[in-house]
């Protein structure tokens, strides 16, 4: 059944590729290929994981089909043109504002390091990154990590805008990406590096309307090196062996566990729904907004418990996007994925035609699609595209509206002065 599922998802990816006009980053194509590749890794891993039940595999097929159906609905009413037909150009004022934003991120790096070092000083772990990670997790549990997460997230958004406008400043884009990489590494978490890498690939693809494999391989190499270095210094089972061969073997096991453990973890939940609390819910974003507004709402912890994934004590706490939909039942899962497909495809089509802000927002949906085997970002992570839109709007559009506002105020003041002069002359 696992091999049949892989074949079905691959065929569905091919159909979506044809429907999209042979666009590789069309969201349903990405979703189906990611899931087919992940399940293929599980198949090749043999008895490393426990077998996945046929019920769970059917959910994976139906979910990809529902996502594809939603995207195809958009395709019927929204024909996409090639990126070469885009007419968007960043204004000089916006370009200057972007430069100021990049300089601000660069200046933030030493302050960020000092803040991380100050909060991590009391944890006494063997490496700095491990102490930083322990401190960040502790602050997250207390709800006091907003400065670090917001700055790391903001650096990603600014660097993506700089990368999108690299034609107007290659060194600026390089410095912004380097600063963002530094800030995210300092938090001890690897998620920021993943998001940054995937988002750059999406932005680059929209700009040139093709996959530049040299760029993708370079980005992947940088990601693997960063991931490996952080795994070593965080002691995620790496660097603890008696020989280089043992360390490499353990690194390979960790890679397979991280990359493919999610679907197996979700299967455990399907088999035994009460095995862990269902703390991932699609309303998480809305609860967070209400709590930020001062409403007294309960926010469940987003750290899931571990379950057994395979023989010899193999365990993990990753359960794919389906875990957030599980309480909705099978029909509810398909309903949510159908509308996620609509949203992702609509942004994708808009990015191809208009570029600019749409390209940057699409990068967040692309990341959510690729990482769907790990977690749920379409609904729980709704804040990411909204924040990306807001930051990009400030860079691209606010100077225009500010100039329009100044012109309006100037004209109103001139009209007032003229009217006051006429009234004064009549009075005399």
Query: What best-fitting shape do the alpha-carbon axes yield?
Result: globular
Strand content: under 5%
- Rg over CA atoms, rounded to whole Å, is 24 Å
From the helix content, strand content and strand pairing, which structural class follows?
A: mainly alpha
State mean pLDDT (0 to 100 scale). 83
> How many runs of DSSP E, i.e. beta strands?
2
The proportion of residues forming helix, as a percent range, comes to: over 70%
Low-confidence stretches: 80-85
Q: Total domains, how many?
A: 1
In short:
With 428 residues, this protein is mainly α.
What would you note in describing this structure?
This protein has one domain (2-396). With 428 residues, the chain is mainly alpha-helical. Strand 1 and strand 2 (314-316) form a beta hairpin. Helices cover 71% and strands 2% of the residues. The protein has 16 helices and two strands. Strands 1-2 form a two-stranded antiparallel sheet.
Question: What's the layout of helices and strands?
Answer:
Layout: H1 2-19, H2 27-44, H3 54-77, H4 92-120, H5 128-142, H6 146-164, H7 170-186, H8 191-208, H9 213-233, H10 244-271, H11 284-292, E1 307-310, E2 314-316, H12 322-325, H13 329-354, H14 357-370, H15 383-396, H16 398-427
Task: For the structure shown, list the relevant keywords.
single chain, 428 residues, mainly alpha, two-stranded antiparallel ribbon, 16 helices, 71% helix
């Amino acid at each position: 059944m696992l091999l049949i599922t892989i074949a079905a998802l691959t065929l569905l990816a091919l159909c979506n590729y044809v429907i999209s006009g042979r666009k590789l980053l069309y969201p349903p194509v990405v979703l189906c290929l990611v899931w087919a590749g992940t399940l293929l890794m599980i198949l090749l891993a043999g008895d490393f994981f426990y077998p996945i039940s046929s019920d769970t595999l059917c959910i994976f097929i139906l979910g990809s089909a529902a996502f594809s159906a939603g995207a195809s609905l958009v395709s019927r009413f929204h024909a996409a043109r090639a990126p070469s037909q885009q007419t968007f150009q960043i204004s000089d004022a916006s370009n200057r504002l972007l430069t100021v934003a990049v300089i601000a991120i660069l200046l933030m790096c030493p302050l960020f390091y000092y803040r991380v070092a100050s909060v991590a000083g009391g944890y006494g772990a063997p490496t700095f990154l491990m102490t930083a990670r322990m401190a960040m997790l502790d602050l997250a549990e207390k709800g006091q990590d907003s400065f670090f997460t917001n700055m790391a997230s903001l650096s990603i958004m600014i660097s993506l805008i700089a990368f999108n406008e690299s034609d107007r400043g290659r060194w600026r884009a390089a410095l912004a990406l380097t600063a963002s990489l530094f800030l995210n590494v300092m938090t001890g978490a690897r998620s920021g590096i993943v998001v940054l890498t995937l988002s750059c690939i999406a932005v680059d693809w929209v700009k040139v309307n093709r996959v530049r494999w040299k760029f993708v391989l370079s980005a992947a190499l940088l990601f693997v090196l960063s991931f490996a270095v952080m795994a070593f210094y965080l002691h995620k089972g790496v660097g603890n062996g008696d020989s280089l061969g043992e360390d490499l073997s353990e690194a390979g096991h960790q890679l397979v566990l991280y990359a493919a453990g999610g679907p197996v973890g979700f299967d455990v939940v399907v088999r035994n729904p009460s095995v862990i609390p269902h703390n991932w819910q699609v309303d998480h974003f809305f609860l967070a907004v209400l709590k930020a507004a001062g409403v007294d709402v309960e926010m469940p912890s987003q750290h899931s418990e571990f379950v057994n994934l395979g023989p010899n004590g193999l365990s993990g706490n990753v359960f794919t996007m389906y875990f957030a939909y599980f309480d909705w039942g099978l029909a509810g899962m398909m309903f949510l994925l159908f509308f996620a497909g609509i949203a992702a495809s609509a942004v994708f089509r808009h990015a191809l035609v208009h570029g600019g802000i749409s390209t940057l927002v699409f990068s967040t949906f692309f990341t959510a699609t690729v990482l769907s085997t790990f977690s749920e970002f379409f609904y729980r992570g709704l804040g990411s595209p909204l924040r990306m839109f807001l930051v990009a709007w400030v860079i691209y559009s606010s100077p225009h509206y500010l100039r329009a506002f100044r012109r309006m105020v100037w004209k109103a003041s001139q009209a007032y002065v003229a009217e006051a002069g006429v009234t004064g002359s009549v009075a005399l």
